[in-house]
């Protein structure tokens, strides 16, 4: 049987004297008042030291001493007060005798409280402890402690503990966020932490292998710090992502970013080291410049393959003039050369206008000169291409009279018969294997000479005139020349090839018609060093390198 004394919601600031029951278990309900301290000595207030259950939830209590606890206490509720710590003697007393309800307080306990380690609902404080110390403690005692059902206050100093608890057991630390006026739940794989000096809300999602930033809770009156390093992020979200627009400090080192768009509008700290960013667009650069003028912007940019080109000269100038706002300016390098960006001169990546125009002018002049040279040396070039089998579609000509019997009719006088041997050797027995026609071998006996000349001209695709002094003085030679000239005058391609020997000094022995032809048309000089190449090129061309 219990004897209940109900003093709830009466705006009381201290516990009054209490009746002492003759029989029954005395219980005092003193919640929702303005009590700042329990009685300094449990024995001074009548009936207080006999209490077996004490409920002082939702008051303003800031501390709890061993002398303030009733000796017979078995149940204590101190929920939603301002208690942050418990002394060793209090913990020893409570752990042995009392069931305690303590939700709603911002607890800080001490790892050195050995008796606390065996307490079923341990309230552990890692304030001031370093991560290795916390890590060792948890590894040694993780199986002997329960952490859930405690209203953990998520401070930056306890980030390791929060992460550990989130993986160890189903942790319910959303309540403190709601209690601090935050909107939205903390992402499942992240830890949400608070700092007060300075006031800051931290969402730690680092090292979780995430490829995108999840929706974030939004604090009421403080910026968000997002720790997202060592993930697989490729693209930043837009401002419509819940909580993203409130981010002021953004840690994105060691991700896979290739561009930097959609930065939060109030960004004051950005770490993008060791990503894959080569350029920063004009919009983002404007944000950097604007924020650096209106606030203390801090940037870390090294470890990216920055493009040191003329198109990125604005970024180059921003980095070189960044001063202390870029924390790793001495480590930022150009992606293509590996040179330090601050040591890269703009003149080396952006030539001056004068140099640009001079280069353009020289290039234009070289182009004009090249065109002129190609026009001037067109024939030698085509001859060389044809000789070496290069660009035959450009150098070779398609023949219009491929069905003719001979490739060339060789016209000469009987006094120059000794010249024929080299033509036969070069043209008929050479690589091209031309078929020649000449009177010593191919004219039929008994046929008139004019008829033979006419038929040979008709059956040949080319007529080669060996013009020597003997030829000029030969009646039959001049006749062959005239017949050949008349026969080829209507052809679309030039069939007549005149080979002029060195001993010929003038054309006085020719009549006016033939003399005019020699004056107005080109011919081959036998003493030309490139004679045979020119002659072969003037002969009928094979199609795609095939033999004629």
TrEMBL record:
- Annotated protein name in UniProt: GL26183
Q: Does the keyword Signal apply?
A: yes
Q: Which PANTHER family match?
A: MSTPROX-RELATED, TOLL-LIKE RECEPTOR
Q: Which GO terms describe its biological process?
A: signal transduction
* Domain (TIR) ranges: 404-539
Task: Provide the protein's localization.
Answer: Membrane
Which controlled-vocabulary keywords does the entry list? Membrane, Signal, Transmembrane, Transmembrane helix
Gene, per the UniProt record: Dper\GL26183
- Locate the transmembrane regions by residue number: 354-377
Q: What InterPro entries does UniProt report for this protein, alphabetically?
A: LRR_dom_sf, TIR_dom, Toll_tir_struct_dom_sf
Q: Which organism is it from?
A: Drosophila persimilis (Fruit fly)
Task: Look up and give the membrane topology term.
Answer: Single-pass membrane protein
Asked if the Swiss-Prot or TrEMBL record annotates the protein with the keyword Transmembrane, the reply is: yes
One Gene Ontology cellular component annotation? plasma membrane
Q: What are the recorded GO MF terms, alphabetically?
A: signaling receptor activity
- What Gene3D superfamilies does the record point to? Ribonuclease Inhibitor, Toll/interleukin-1 receptor homology (TIR) domain
Q: What is its main location?
A: membrane
Q: Which residues form the signal peptide?
A: none
């Amino acid at each position: 049987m219990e004897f209940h004394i109900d003093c709830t919601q009466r705006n009381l600031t201290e516990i009054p004297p209490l009746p002492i029951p003759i029989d029954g278990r005395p219980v005092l309900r003193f919640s929702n008042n303005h009590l700042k301290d329990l009685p300094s000595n449990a024995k001074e207030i009548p009936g207080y030291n006999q209490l077996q259950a004490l409920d002082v939830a939702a008051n303003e209590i800031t501390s709890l001493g061993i002398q303030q606890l009733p000796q017979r206490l078995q149940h204590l509720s101190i929920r939603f007060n301002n208690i942050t710590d418990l002394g060793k003697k209090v913990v020893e007393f409570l752990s042995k005798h009392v069931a305690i309800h303590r939700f709603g307080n911002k607890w800080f306990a001490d790892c050195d409280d050995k008796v606390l380690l065996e307490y079923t609902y341990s309230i552990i404080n890692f304030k001031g402890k370093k991560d290795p110390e916390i890590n060792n403690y948890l590894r040694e005692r993780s199986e002997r402690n329960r952490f859930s059902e405690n209203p953990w206050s998520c401070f930056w100093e306890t980030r390791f503990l929060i992460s550990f608890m989130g993986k160890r057991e189903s942790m319910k630390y959303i309540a403190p966020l709601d209690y601090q006026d935050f909107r939205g739940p903390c992402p499942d794989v992240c830890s949400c932490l608070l700092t007060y000096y300075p006031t800051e809300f931290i969402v730690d999602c680092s090292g979780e292998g995430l490829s995108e930033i999840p929706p974030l809770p939004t604090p009421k009156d403080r910026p968000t710090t997002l720790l997202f390093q060592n993930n697989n992020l490729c693209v930043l979200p837009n401002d419509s992502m819940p909580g993203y627009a409130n981010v002021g400090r953004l840690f994105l080192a060691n991700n896979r970013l290739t561009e930097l768009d959609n930065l939060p509008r109030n960004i004051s700290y950005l770490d993008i080291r060791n990503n894959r960013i080569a350029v920063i667009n004009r919009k983002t650069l404007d944000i950097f410049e604007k924020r650096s003028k209106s606030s203390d912007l801090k940037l870390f940019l090294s470890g990216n393959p920055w493009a040191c080109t003329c198109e990125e000269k604005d970024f180059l100038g921003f980095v070189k003039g960044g001063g202390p706002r870029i924390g790793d300016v001495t480590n930022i390098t150009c992606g293509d050369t590996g040179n330090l960006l601050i040591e890269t001169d703009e003149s080396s990546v952006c030539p001056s206008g004068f140099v640009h125009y001079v280069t353009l002018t020289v290039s234009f002049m070289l182009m004009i000169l090249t065109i002129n040279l190609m026009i001037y040396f067109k024939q030698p070039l085509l001859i060389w291409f044809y000789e070496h089998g290069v660009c035959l579609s450009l150098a070779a000509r398609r023949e219009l009279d491929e069905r003719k019997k001979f490739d060339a009719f060789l016209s000469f006088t009987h006094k120059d018969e000794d010249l024929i041997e080299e033509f036969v050797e070069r043209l008929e027995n050479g690589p091209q294997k031309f078929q020649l026609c000449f009177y010593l071998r191919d004219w039929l006996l008994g046929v008139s000479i004019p008829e033979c000349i006419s038929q040979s001209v008709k059956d040949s695709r080319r007529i080669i005139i060996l013009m020597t002094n003997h030829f000029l003085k030969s009646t039959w030679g001049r006749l062959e020349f005239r017949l050949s000239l008349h026969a080829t005058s209507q052809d679309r391609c030039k069939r007549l090839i005149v080979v002029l020997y060195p001993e010929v000094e003038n054309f006085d022995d020719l009549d006016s018609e033939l003399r005019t032809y020699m004056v107005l048309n080109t011919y081959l000089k036998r003493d030309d060093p490139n004679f045979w190449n020119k002659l072969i090129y003037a002969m009928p061309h094979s199609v795609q390198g095939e033999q004629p």
